[in-house]
Design brief:
The complex is a heterodimer. By secondary structure, chain A is mainly beta. Helices cover 11% and strands 41% of the residues of chain A. The chains are: A mainly beta, B alpha+beta. Chains A and B meet through helix 9 of A and helix 4 of B.
Chain lengths: 634, 203
Amino acid sequence: MKRWLAWAATAAMALWVTAHVPGCTSSRGSGAGGSAAARVYVKPGEHDTYYAFLSGGHHGNVYVYGMPSCRHITTIPVFTPEPAVGYGNDEDSKAMMGGFTWGDAHHPGLSETDGDYDGRWLFINDMPNARIARIDLKDFKTRQIFGPIPNLSAAHACPFPTPNTEYVFAASRFSVPVPNRPVKVEDYAKEFNGIIAGIKVDPVTGVMSMGFEILMPPFAWDLADAGKGPSHGWEFFTCYNSEQGYDSLEIKASQNEMDFVAAVDWRAAQKAVDDGKATTIGGAPVLDPAKVPGIVYLVPVPKSPHGVDVDPSGQYICASGKLQAEVSIYSFAKLKAAIDAKKFDGDRAGIPVLRYEDVLEAKVPVGLGPLHTQFDDKGNAYTSLFLDSQIAKWKVGPPWNVVDKIDVYYSIGHLMASEGDTRHPTGEYVVALDKLSKDRYLSVGPTHPEAAQLIDLRGPKMELLYDFPTYLEPHYAQMIRAEKLKPITVYPLEENTNKFAIKRAEDARIERKGNRVDVYGLVVRTHFTPDIVRVNQGDDVYFHWTNLEQDDDIAHGFGILWSSLNMQIEPGETKTIHWKAGAPGIVPFYCSNFCSALHQEMQGFIQVNPAGSPVAARQRPDPRQVAEIAAILK
Amino acid sequence: MELALTRRFSTLQRRLIVLASLVLIPVFFLPVLPIWVMKLYAPQYREGLQLTIYSNTIRGDLQNINTLNHYVGMRAIKADDFDEFRYLPQALTGFGLLALLAALVNRRWLAILGWLAFTGFAGYMFVDYAEWLWKYGHELDPRAALKLPAFSPPLIGYKRMANFQVWSLPGPGTLLLGIAWALGPAILLLDRRAAKRDIGTGP
């Protein structure tokens, strides 16, 4: 009995030691184990547990990271050409980009079902050109660019999808005349307008189309978030410059004690359009809230708010006045009650204004320069503090107090918690997306990278795990559980319906109609078929290459010498590139994406004859070559 | 010997013969079970490439394997090249029917003849398969980019070929064929046991 007691005591002692000595086990309790290094370490060959989608800012694209390793996995070209893969070079993506070669991408918006990420699409805005792109997460490719949205200038509050991805939104950050026309800038208050646009998303295909536009006063419409749960059906937009200044904004737009959150009842707005209450301006159905009541209301918010974020329950709307040290929390129930009771405090441009005291639930003194708020699964909120370079953790609900703070480096803008803007945040991580990196990494001269820090949320206190640079310039970002995405690894050939696709070596050919030459070719390790193309000076040559491989990661490239033309053709894919035949001579082309042991040999020649030389209407590659390739592909 | 050929089967033996014919069904009638599987691993194909041979066709990563094989000038593997696929299911069906018939009419000589023919056929197919492998490894295109000395892929077991590690193993179909085949001697064994019992309990 005595011996048994001694054993039990020793065991208890050992347990206590392992529980309390750092490095023995979790030093923070709940779930998070080991040192910071161990918690971000993903063994070679293993995968991260989250995908993170970071907006590329004025790089115009999307960066994909793995979390918690913070490894950059790929960059998805969206608004900016990417010649490595041919984005903006091949005919389809060139047409989709609509003549633009730049965008400023701020806010990724993952598609949602019942208020949680469903892993189908990622939407992202191009602020300056008022466009929204949809990336298909089956292949991580940009599949639609919608816009420029008529009447709308600088789509910053965009796209912020609704809980079932019924809509994505956009709002004017810089108001302009609607319709745009030459007016005096001094007539700003009279002649300028903001626009809030609701863009419909097809529930099956994800294709975006115009839903409605609302004519707003010329405030600077800044950020947005969708209501969820009880507030489903509403979208909230912050604004600054309710002063309607048009110059020296840093002073003039900062005078009012109160700016606003606009609450838009998007079902009512769509119904008003469907009932014919809109005026068509610039091809879009525009609703004037002065004439169509019941679609939008204004909620006063102190001091030039920036972010607006709805909590996971959908009951609270958190707006951060960036020039004050508090987050204002509004109750959706109170907001709804005030609207139902028509308890208004006048109007702005015909839009009813609610009374601040009627709708306010709480004020949380988070610290200086509060910008954005994200959430965890334990009833906490995390607000980024630009001026304090900190993240404040606070309790959603009484006593509405700050419970923890952590330093970040430096000047944090957005923050990204794991699934932190959904109905069910996972509460594992938050990433600080900082505007300045200064001295954090090896210096690369005056153009600094941006900085980001991965922070563990699983313990009672926030804990810094990792610090990593990013290329210019992530704004908002979103993190989704990796198992929600099931990307394909090759395009199934049988699903390739491209009209220029060929699937048999026997179909490889070159056809000429006037000055247009169509090359129907195929690429497979390690040939271009055909690999000799004869054209005349001045011909418009369209190369249609189909990659007949069905093997994981066997992409082929097509680069033409003395040109800016290059593209990558993935297994099973057909892509078209247009090349204008220049001076007579020989122009080699080659596979630019290392494919296999005989990659160096994968090349061909274009023979450019003088203009008007006799050329056959149809050329076929060497039959022996065709037979050899046909044998492989059987 | 004469006795052995003219005697009738017991009920148990007849049932076993029917069983022998039935186990062949997934191999020939519904070619769902492969008779041979070849798996090829390389540093960049850790998940492996697979060739799966059924009684009527060949499936798996054919296009990839052919694409890789053309570097060494190996002829493309195509189901159409094998006449075997056109008679193998029929032949197996024939053996199954023969066994059923033997059980039905209860003729020992028929069963033994069928079994012997089946054994000979299986041996022939094995040699035939070995010949195919030899041909693939020896009749290499002299214009190939990579010139390899002639080789034979493994008939059964493991072999390292350039950067590939190749496993060649009989599939579950062959296992069933083996069971069907082994039922032949098993049934004869029952005879001997019955004979012993007869001697032991006889007058």
